[in-house]
Amino acid sequence: MAHYRRANTRxxxxxxxxxxxxxxxxxxxxEAEELSQQLGxxxxxxxEYFFSLPRHQLQAVLEAYGTAFGRDKRxxxxxxxxxxxxxxxxxxxxxxxxxxxxLPPLMPFEKKYDLVANLWREMGPSSHKVLRIGPDxxxxxxxxxxxDHVMETVQHYTIPERLxxxxxxxTMGDVNVQQQLMNHLLEMDKRQTVELTRLQxxxxxxxxxxxxxxxxxxxxxxxxxxxxxxxLYDKNASGVTxxxxxxxxxxxxxxxxxxxxxxxxxxxxWVAGGLVLLWLLLRGx
Length: 285
Fold this sequence. Notes:
Elements: H1 2-38, H2 44-51, H3 55-69, H4 71-86, H5 93-100, H6 109-123, E1 127-133, H7 139-155, H8 161-171, H9 175-210, E2 217-224, E3 227-234, E4 240-243, H10 266-284
Parallel strand pairs: 1-3
Antiparallel strand pairs: 1-4, 2-3
Helix pairs in contact: 1-5, 3-4, 6-8, 7-9, 8-9
């Protein structure tokens, strides 16, 4: 009887230990999911930033951590840091959330720009437009039209929840800081648009000027972040016209075929003739 009670007690203990371990594991998963959601769904770059902190900045974070949660928690974090960094030990969502929430006030603006820009490149607005360019078009007009389109697209963009969460985490509810970050993103898109357009368009226009007598239509794709422009030269056009690509709703312009487009169909007739000849030969056998 005593042996039965000891065995039963051992089974109950093992069962309770299993349940306790399983609950802790589930709790860690929930905490990690909450942290990822809080950081906008892409917490990898935040972890990379934390693990790359110079020693004096890391000490400032750990000091704030100890003040907020106790000396023993600070000592544990300090001892576990290198194991977390190497991947030997997994940082729990609870600890990561506590530590990472101490980062924004200590983070330079340049790094905040980097962290929000990474998510912006992934989740920011995208567009696809056609710029119909006539012989009289100049570079400044092309730059202006592309820049205006990108800025209008960005300014009318509804920021998704994940990106809003990243803003909220980085700014800690400071509206002024959030506006600074948003202004930085707008300026970044505008600057990139102007620089890339000025870099690529002159080559295209030079080719047009040098081959004006032989060029009926010339196309070049300009990719600016998540914005795609098909730069189409048409000698019958005037200035610069912005339109949707062929086949998209609201299209204002259907591109003309090139003067020698009919040559692209000749190979089909040759293939068809070859197949007929092959069929006749096989039939003759």
